[in-house]
From TrEMBL, chain A:
This is Ferrous iron transport protein A. SMART domains: FeoA (SM00899). Pfam families: FeoA. Residues 9-80 form the Ferrous iron transporter FeoA-like domain. It comes from Algoriphagus aquaeductus. InterPro entries: Fe-transptr_FeoA-like, FeoA, FeoA_core_dom, Transcriptional_repressor_C.
UniProtKB/TrEMBL annotation, chain B:
The keyword tRNA-binding does not apply. It is found in: Cell inner membrane; Cell membrane. GO terms for molecular function: ferrous iron transmembrane transporter activity; GTP binding; metal ion binding. GTP binds at residues 19-26, 44-48, 65-68, 129-132. Residues 12-178 form the FeoB-type G domain. This is Ferrous iron transport protein B. Mg(2+) binds at residues 30, 33-34. Belongs to the TRAFAC class TrmE-Era-EngA-EngB-Septin-like GTPase superfamily. FeoB GTPase (TC 9.A.8) family.
Length: 81, 710
């Protein structure tokens, strides 16, 4: 993914150390959990760490480092910034 | 507008502490109550109910520490408790006041829950904790602005450094809690007609309570079935989409909170950079190496430190038993006390050093923030087996002792993942198996080095541990497709900033966990040890008396001490052979013969159901070794001379010894674990299934091993 490319994607596709702005949370039974944790449209997140071999992803959002499995991160639609 | 009503039933004022996970709730709870805590049960769930008491100016306060939660909408058993307590579901008593703890650096997320509490009409006060970290991050909170907009009293504290905690005591004793005006108008989300019907039917105070009732009506099993059906039908006829309403509520609530936070919070920070510690601890290779190193240090510490107090405890109870036997008049009661009850209690107490140390280390790892990193690293490797990243803690603890491992499984919120973890943890080779392994390996595996540096005995030991791990993975894999749950497995966890552990809290955790084990599991263990003692000490009276008088007759003619000891040892061996357990051992011989065991080993299998290490002492008694049973070499030499009456060969040949070791890898053989599983699952069903499965697996694997080597 080229830098500056602002095509919408989901948070699991974010390259390491890149940031995105949340556009929406896709419908799912887990949507409410994500929103309660503070994943809300308009917030910025940065992918800081990836566990090896498709393991969880750690996003920095505001003051918090939050870990999600990639299929959960796939529920967060973002635009790359 | 402080309220001064006391709860009607007693003079004690009930206060609940609530907050998100990792906000320092427990530190505040520990500060208020000290060791004056009690762990009880909530009906129908496995969550512990932590209550404590504190007294101030002659008044009594009962403090309830609720499990950490992000919202009033429960995702796990833990969170449903918060809901039940606050909504006065008939099984719980609603607290008079609620103290909400918020992490100052996570203001929005904390306010999300706090404003829900306000909307429920709860008498509330807010503590903004972790003021020190907020200050470090240049976050400044205008508490007055918050107070003006929320209408509840607000305190700022730094519980970790004991700052501002006395204010909390004052606030509680002055009952400075407030029922504030509604924060969010739920009518924006739900039609009034629907809410009114629910309010009228259940006689509720406000609309948000009615909304909560609808939300939980369908889910919470503590609510009567008729009520649940009524609520479901109501939603259907009113064409009300609950899920949509929840999302809408979350959106609106967060929008209002964001406005409020913008007004009341100053932040001068740039986006937070990556932590240097995380660069190492979460590294794809380095992270795992660090984890391995930490594990090695912990096990080293547990094995070397715990062995001293364990030896003292062992010695103390042996002396106490001996003292009782020699100073009280001989009789069945004295013997029951000295040989049944005292060793039974000793068998419980002996686990305390391991449990306390392991939980001490776990508390340190948890409190520093490292544990969630391990979960992050391990989740991917656990999931294929139906386990969760959090399962790694119980499994790793299981290498020391399954008891704290099973107790640690309660942090897993998904029922299925928790059950699998609890059921497989005892398959990890614990420290109690080690003595059995060592004696049998010493007996049959030559102390030789192959390929230049690999010691064959060490290799055999490693093989047994790996076999246990294989058992864990295979069993998890099978359970994954058997156990069913509607809960969705997810990993959404905060990786908190690294911090120095709070030593006081670590100490309290060690005390509380040990106490829980002794009080809850101890009862079962004591009962089983007494039963086993009775079975091992009594047999058909005529036969037992005959053996005793034969022994006495033989003793009359000898004077040499050595001979006396020998005769006494032989007599006690005969007594055990003819006791009820001995008879049972003979009875199961046909069953265990295919595994290469004779009835003497059968007896040891039955007695060591209490605990695996009992195998050694039973073998010592039954082969009338006498003298110092602690001396491995004596036992080993004696065992080596035994001849199997069925085959005429050595009893402990390679095939039998290997088969026995494999049996101990898989068999449950630990009533303490059984008692803890019963406690954690709140039923006898699971420990029974587990015992049957593990014994069956042990039998099968031991059979295969015997066939291969004989």
């Amino acid at each position: 993914m080229r830098l500056g490319d602002s095509r919408p994607m989901t948070a699991d596709q974010l390259p390491l150390n890149h940031s995105g702005k949340i556009l929406e949370i896709l419908p799912s039974p887990l949507k409410i959990n994500l929103m309660e944790l503070g994943f809300l449209p308009g917030k910025y997140l940065t992918l800081h760490h990836k566990a090896p071999s498709g393991g969880p992803l750690a996003f920095q959002m505001d003051e918090t480092l939050l870990a999600l499995r990639s299929k959960e991160a796939a529920l967060i639609r973002i635009e790359l910034i | 507008m402080a309220e001064t009503t006391l709860s009607k039933s007693t003079q004690t004022t009930r206060i609940a502490i609530i907050g998100n996970p990792n906000v320092g709730k427990s530190t505040i709870f520990n500060y208020l109550t000290g060791l004056n805590q009690k762990i009880g049960n909530y009906p129908g769930v496995t969550v512990d109910k932590k209550t404590g008491f504190f007294h101030h100016n002659g008044e009594h306060f009962e403090i309830l520490d609720l499990p950490g939660t992000y919202s009033l909408f429960p995702n796990s058993e833990d969170e449903i408790i918060a809901h039940r307590v606050l909504n006065n579901t008939h099984l719980e008593t609603r607290p008079d006041y609620v103290l909400m703890v918020i992490d100052s650096t996570q203001l929005s997320r904390g306010l999300f829950l706090a404003t829900q509490l306000i909307d429920l009409g709860i008498n509330l006060a807010i503590v903004l904790n972790m003021a020190d970290i907020a200050e470090k991050k240049s976050i400044e909170i205008r508490t007055f602005e918050l107070f003006k907009n929320l209408g509840v009293p607000i305190l700022q504290t730094d519980a970790r450094n004991q700052k501002g905690l006395d204010q909390i005591k004052n606030l509680i004793s002055q009952r400075n809690f407030t029922q504030a005006p509604t924060f969010l108008n739920i009518l924006e989300v739900i039609p009034e007609g629907l809410l009114k019907q629910v309010r009228d039917k259940f006689d509720l105070e406000n609309n948000y309570q009615a909304y909560q009732m609808i939300r939980f009506g369908a889910k919470d099993k503590a609510i009567l079935e008729a009520v649940r059906i009524w609520l479901q039908q109501l939603c259907q006829t009113e064409k009300f989409n609950l899920e949509e309403a929840q999302l809408e509520e979350t959106k609106i609530r967060y929008a209002k909170i964001t406005d409020l936070v913008n007004k009341s919070l100053f932040k001068k920070t740039a986006p937070k950079p990556k932590s240097n510690l995380d660069r190492l601890f979460l590294h794809s290779v380095g992270g795992y190496l660090v984890f391995l190193a930490i594990l090695l240090i912990i096990f080293q510490a547990i094995f070397s430190w715990a062995s001293y107090p364990m030896d003292w405890i062992d010695g103390f109870f042996a002396d106490l038993g001996g003292w009782i036997q020699s100073s009280l008049p001989d009789g069945p009661l004295t013997r029951l006390l000295a040989e049944g009850v005292i060793p039974g209690i000793g068998g419980v107490v002996i686990f305390i050093p391991q449990i306390a140390l392991l939980f001490g280390f776990l508390a340190i790892l948890e409190d520093t923030g490292y544990m969630s990193r391990v979960v992050f690293l391990m989740d991917r490797w656990m999931r294929p087996f139906g386990l969760h990243g959090k399962s790694i803690v119980p499994l790793v603890s299981g290498v020391a002792c399954a008891i704290p491992g099973v107790m640690a499984a309660r942090n897993i919120s998904n029922w299925k993942e928790k059950m699998i973890t609890i059921l497989v943890t005892p398959l990890m080779s614990c420290s109690a198996r080690l003595p059995v392994y060592i004696i049998l390996i010493g007996l049959t595996v030559p102390d030789e080095t192959v390929a230049g540096f690999v010691n064959l005995q060490a290799l055999a030991l490693l093989g047994l541990y790996l076999l246990g791990i294989l058992g864990v993975l295979a069993t998890s894999f099978i359970l994954k497709s058997i156990l069913k749950t509607d809960e969705k497995s997810f990993l959404m966890t905060e990786l908190p900033s690294y911090r120095i552990p709070r030593w006081g809290d670590v100490g309290i955790t060690m005390v509380e966990k040990s106490k829980t084990f002794v009080l809850e599991a101890g009862k079962v263990i004591l009962a089983i040890s007494i039963v086993l003692w009775v079975l091992a000490s009594y047999g058909p009276p005529a036969r037992m008396d005959e053996i005793r008088s034969q022994g006495e007759a033989r003793l009359e003619n000898v004077l040499e001490e050595e001979q006396i000891a020998e005769i006494e040892a032989e007599t006690s061996a005969k007594l055990l052979e003819n006791s009820f357990i001995g008879i049972m051992g003979r009875a199961i011989e046909p069953v265990i013969k295919p595994l290469g065991y004779d009835w003497k080993i059968g007896i040891a299998l039955i007695t060591s159901f209490a605990a695996r290490e009992v195998f050694i002492s039973t073998m010592a008694t039954i082969y009338s070794i006498g003298g110092d049973v602690e001396d491995d070499l004596t036992i080993r030499e004696k065992l080596d001379q035994q001849i199997n009456a069925n085959t005429g060969e050595k009893t402990f040949n390679k095939a039998t010894a290997f088969s026995l070791m494999v049996f101990y890898v898989f068999a449950m053989q630990c009533m303490s674990t059984l008692a803890v599983v019963k406690r954690e699952t709140k039923s006898w069903k699971w420990p029974l299934i587990q015992t049957i499965y593990m014994s069956g697996l042990a039998y099968l694997m031991a059979f295969i091993t015997f066939q291969i080597f004989s």
